[in-house]
Design brief:
Blueprint (H helix, E strand, L loop, with lengths): L6 H13 L14 H13 L14 H15 L11 H10 L3 H16 L11 E5 L16 H21 L7 E5 L7 E2 L2 E3 L4 E5 L5 H15 L7 E5 L8 H6 L4 E6 L2 E4 L7
Helix pairs in contact: 1-2, 1-3, 1-4, 1-5, 2-3
Length: 272
C-alpha cells in the first residue's frame, strides 16, 4: 500500500511545483528530469516513514511526478492533472497559495534542517532526551513576515534564561526536553524542564487567551511522553490577570512569573 505523503513532503512538492513554473498551466518536468530526481532523493533522505515500512518504490521519481500532477488537480479543481490526491495536498495548497513567501521559507527551512541533521528519519518508537536551554531550538517552521512571532520567541527565551539562572543559584538544573515522536521527522522541544522537580514549563510573552490556549496544548502534547506525569506550568512575564489563572488551573496547570530578583508561582513554591 502506498504511504500517504506527510505535510513536510507536500510542502517540498508544492515548493517545487511553483519554482518550476507549473502554476497556471506551466509544464511539469518529467520523472527523468533533474528537478524531480533531486526531490526524490531528498524525500528518501527525509524518510518520513520508518525504513521497515518503505518498499523499493518509496518516493521514487515516478511517484514525485504523480504528486505534482495531484497538485495540478488541486489547483484546477480536478479539471487537469491526476485527481487522486490526498486531503493533505488540498490543505497545504489552501494554507500557502495566498502566502507563497511563507511556503518557500518553510521549504527552505526543511531543507536546511535536513542538511544539518536537526530533522532525522522517522522511527518506530518515541525518543526523548535532555538538552541545554542555550540551544535555540524551536518547533516553529513558518516565518512570519511581520516579525511578531520572532519578537515573542526572543522575549520568551529571555524569560526562560532568567528562570534557569535563578534556579541554578539554588543548585537546581533547568534544561529543555527534546522529543522525537514515533513516525515523525521533526523534533519538538519544551521551553523548560526541571528534572529534580519533575516540572515541565512552557513560556509565553503574555497571558492573552490565545497564548494560554497554545501553552495548554503544548504542555499536554509533551506530557504524553512522561512517566510519571510531570507538574505543569506556564512561565509569564507577570502574574496572570482576571480569569486567566482559573483557565490554567481548570486543566491542572499553574503559573510562574518574575518577582523582584527571583520568581513566584501559584503552586506554593513547586516551581521556584
Amino acid at each position: 500500500m502506498a504511504l500517504d505523503w506527510t505535510r513536510e513532503e507536500d510542502i517540498l512538492a508544492m515548493d517545487l511545483y511553483l519554482r518550476v513554473g507549473a502554476r497556471s498551466g506551466g509544464s511539469i518536468p518529467g520523472a527523468g528530469s533533474r528537478e524531480i530526481i533531486q526531490l526524490s532523493e531528498m524525500l528518501k533522505k527525509l524518510s518520513a516513514y520508518p525504513p521497515d515500512r518503505q518498499d523499493d518504490k518509496y518516493r521514487n521519481p515516478d511517484g514525485v511526478y504523480l504528486k505534482l500532477m495531484n497538485l495540478r488537480s488541486v489547483e484546477t479543481d480536478g479539471a487537469h492533472g491526476m485527481p487522486r490526491g490526498s486531503k493533505v495536498d488540498a490543505a497545504v495548497w489552501r494554507d500557502y497559495v495566498d502566502n507563497l513567501p511563507a511556503l518557500h521559507a518553510e521549504a527552505e527551512t526543511i531543507r536546511l534542517r535536513l542538511q544539518d541533521g536537526a530533522m532525522r528519519p522517522a522511527r518506530s518508537e518515541t525518543l526523548t532526551e535532555d538538552v541545554e536551554v542555550e540551544r535555540q531550538h524551536t518547533e516553529t517552521f513558518i516565518v512570519n513576515p511581520s516579525g511578531e512571532q520572532r519578537v515573542a520567541e526572543r522575549a520568551e527565551q529571555r524569560l526562560v534564561l532568567s528562570y534557569r539562572d535563578h534556579m541554578a543559584g539554588k543548585g537546581i538544573r533547568v534544561c529543555r526536553k527534546k522529543y522525537l515522536p514515533a513516525g515523525e521527522v521533526r523534533p519538538i522541544f519544551s521551553d523548560a524542564w526541571v528534572p529534580e522537580r519533575n516540572a515541565l514549563i512552557e513560556a509565553k510573552n503574555s497571558d492573552s487567551r490565545d497564548a494560554l490556549r497554545a501553552a495548554i496544548g503544548q504542555l499536554y502534547d509533551y506530557r504524553r511522553f512522561h512517566e510519571p506525569q510531570p507538574h505543569l506550568a506556564v512561565l509569564l512575564p507577570y502574574p496572570p490577570t482576571g480569569d486567566r489563572l482559573g483557565l490554567l488551573r481548570s486543566v491542572h496547570i499553574e503559573a510562574l512569573w518574575p518577582y523582584g530578583s527571583g520568581f513566584r508561582d501559584s503552586a506554593h513554591g513547586t516551581f521556584v
